[in-house]
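Revision sheet: structure tokens.
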Amino acid sequence: MLKKIIIGVAILATSLVAEVQQVWATPEFTHKNIKIIDIRTPAEWKETGIVEHSYTIMFFDERGNFNLKNFLTRLNKIVKKDEPFALICRVGSRTGMVSKFLSEKLGYKVINLKGGITKMIKEGYKTVPYKQ
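Predicted:
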């Protein structure tokens, strides 16, 4: 019984430490050695372009639906669970929700890029064209 309590406390302590890092999306952030995952839709990637060297993995489709298993399968091919990585979307709303879920429920080390690609473009960042 004591062993179960200790394991339970350890799991709870781990989940309490899991916190999303909130960072403003800036052109300078792209110079860090941190992988950026763009969770927007293909139509959005085509419209604005993407951050150079970022990875495109759609989370929500145009109707707001998502396939968590598919997303995690693709994500896990790019990052390790204990490796910090950043999520970006148009303005930071979707990444706010997704990064909180990935961090608090699944234990990933997520950085939410607040303001999204829109903020970066306003600050002069030049995106690269999205290629399928």
